[in-house]
Amino acid sequence: MMNFQNIILALKEFWSQKGCLLIEPYDVEKGAATFNPATFFGAISSSPVQIAYPEPCRRPADGRYGDNPNRLGKYYQFQVLLKPVPRDVTDLYMGSLRSLGLDVKKHDLRWIEDDWESPTLGASGLGWEVWLDGMEITQFTYFQQMGQAPLFPVSVEITYGLERIAMYLQKKDSVFDLHFNDERSYGQMFKEAERQFSVYNFEEADVEMLGRHFEDYEKEGARLVLKGLPLPAYDCVLKLSHCFNVLEARGSVSVTERAQYIARVRGLAKKVINCYLELENVEKKEFINQR
Amino acid sequence: MSRKKNSSTSAKAEPKDYLLEIGMEPLPARFLSSALKSLSSKMEEALKAGRLSFKSVKTFGTPRRLAILIEKVSPKSEASSEKFFGPPASRLKNPDGTYSSAADGFARKYETTADKLLIETTVKGEQLAVMVNRPGLSAREILAKAAVEAVSSLEFPKSMEWEDSRFKFARPIRSFVSLWGDEPVSFSLAGIKTSRALRGLNGEGAKIEDASEYEKILRNMAVLASLEERRQALIKKLDWSAAEGGGDWDKDEDLISEITAMTEHPVPVLGRFDKKFLELPQPLISLVLKKQLKFFPLKNSGQLISAFIGVRDGISEGQNLVKEGFERVLVARLNDAVFFFGRDRKRPLESYLEELKRVTYQKDLGTMAEKAARVEKLAENLIGLLSDFPIIKNSLADIARLCYADLTTGLVKEFPELQGSLGGVYARLDGKDERIALGLEEFYFPLGPKTPIPTTVEGGLASLAGKLDSLAGCFAAGLIPTGNADPYALRRQAFGVIRIALERQLPMDLEEAVSFALATQPIVLAEERFSQIRDELLDFLWGRAQSLFEEKGFAIDEIRAVKAGGLKNLSRTYLRLSALKSVRKDADFEPLAISFKRASNILKQAHYENGNTIFHEERLVDPSELGLFEFLKTTETSLNEKREADDFDGMLKSLTKVKPHLDLFFEKVMVMAEDMELRQARLSLLGKMVRLFKEVADLSEIQGASSK
Fold first, then answer.
1. What is d(CA B330, CA B324) in angstroms, rounded to the nearest whole number?
2. Whole-model pTM?
3. B293 has a chain A CB within 8 A of its CB
4. DSSP 8-class letter at B280
5. Which residues of B touch A113 (CB under 8 A)?
6. Is the ipTM of this complex over 0.95?
7. What is the CATH topology of the domain spanning A4-199?
């Protein structure tokens, strides 16, 4: 039986063998591995990309005080981004499942249409969620748009839901019962954090402060874009997005405000993209070389 | 000529089957069957246009492949020659004797030169002409072109790009197999060259030598390529599994089609879950099973049992692992449902109304609480439109008041598809009257074009009120559906309004109901704008009524003939239509319709309007017009009785007897007499006849047999 950290190691090993650059998680809060700048800029850049990395993700509104066996406010994804897309990419993916000890012939592997959209990044893509015996274990997305502009060349993103895969492999009904390594359980490591962050996100977060930070990072990001610094400006996009997520979990965002917040994050993301493309295309700066 | 050539070539030139397979990454299930239809019609058209004969067409489709097998395709297309005409012959040459640019241009268009042009005499005089001879082309040449064009022009609800040529398709194409018999019909598209490689369910490969082996090779790799065969196999195996599970499986058509389209080799897996979950509301369990996991629920005498059938794709290796996996996922989902259900049930449904104040319906149309208040008021107003109809007013009021309460429960927030049905479940648990619970449960009915409408009159009226309010609000806010875009599902709601009014036989004036609904909207409209929007909405509703009547087999001109006042009482409109349809079969009907049209046209040209002139019947002199007058007078009396009894058939039959009188009238008198009073009298006479007919149908809308 594979423990949680061995799953990450196996995926790293597999994709490293396939020529991926193994990078480590990015150190700013984010809701999904897609938000890691390596993927964000990797997708919009015209350079080839082959990267793989685990990424902790925060979804404040999904926290359940550690009481729900299937829900977490913070969890782990394993992300692969490939550009250009190899022709045998779905076979490669099935190979990665074999590296986790899953013989796909003995299971029901189903590709369910699931198009991805991120309103805050003005991004969209087409693809699937992959079901293993009924459980969604992976998002598979061909990016088509970022900042509302078409992407070319197209990249494919494979996002493994690590807890889901571990629950399947270890036959556990609660995420907290997962073996992180052979001694420690996922619950021992994170259950208390789930509780405390749920209290924070739902009850304690300082709404006024978060609103202020949102404003500040928005201004800072816009200023940095004007200085031709899209990378630090993108950090501001991540900060905006996280402030908004906490405010929403805290229940202090009305329907109309919600649309406005999202539009503001998207607005800055778009500026960052344009700034980045300007540097890459006009000044021929190559800042992403991830192959 | 070409035929002779063919028979003289070797025995090899026999017709052969043509196979085209597009190998893809998994295609969304909902795209499959229309893509196959479109592929086959495009290929058929292309072969016909290329004059390449074939016997028949079969399609195959799985998530991984779209394929077409065209049987017995001739080796060569038929040769043809066709003459095309161009500018007048006089323009062939310039004064200096050289060929004119017009002649050059015309010749070039048909890939020839001006000296080869012919001069032909036509009705237009002498014209330049060109004879285009198309030799027979080889099947492979035509097929390759047809395949490339068909694949390139397939359209999907959503397409994507994935490779350098920026080809667009629903999902990435990974292979093409294109064979005429054993010979490759090569092409290259989307960065892929045709090959002989077929792919099995788990990525295993096989090489195909001849097009005709296609189905067999795939079957050997456990792929049932034919959609229909796969569907039948699935149904049969589901029957077996259900028998083993001790219940009947829920034969949900949408789910059967979806599973058929998303598998290559469907194998049912019977699973079970803890009986304690059966305490959850049944619609919720069904939803979790069907919508979330694509499992078939099992039932015993209409009640769910603690077993289900999941379907896996592939052969039965590791069946137990799959079963365990299915069961574990289901338990996780059901536990989630238990969590929300338990939280919701801590307080009664009624208490959720308060939270509607914090839910926006639409930015110009206020909150859901405001919408709920409008619906309540509208439902009350609708009772007024149904004078003697038996209605339990308190039940209707309760349904209308509570219809949106479930929207703020945890379960509906989690599973929006449960709206309505969950309200019913909670109302029952709260001890509400069954009539109210059922009304809430069916508030959003009908959910589809053929699914049931609310069972009770009270439920039907509440549902009508909800739909009319949405329609009126959206129309007032300018959110009118255009083309395919209908984000507020207004077409479906309008269709629901029509179906409820018609199938419940509600003698309700929908024109009035629409006015009520519009008047309660928070958007204040000036008088002129109000009636403009009202007319637009009525037209929109009539449009749905028209499609419904068309589906029931009425012709479009018949439906037009009953449009006037059609929404004032839909059940009557239906009877009027049936009367018209049955009378139309009579041999006399069409000539009558023609005479009627003549009468209508005369009235129109004379700008005659009913009621604004005095009928000087004493001015009628000719026996023919007196005859018509007498007929109408006696008939009118008998019509009153028939009208009372809704006997539109009888009305129309009596009226059609006017034919000989009308014919004689047209034969003997001229309506537009010099004498103005006489003219008015005759116009009034025709006006009266037209008016009587229009109570049933406006025959001037009826198209002649020739133009039908």
1. 10
2. 0.77
3. yes
4. S
5. 28-30
6. no
7. BirA Bifunctional Protein; domain 2 (3.30.930)
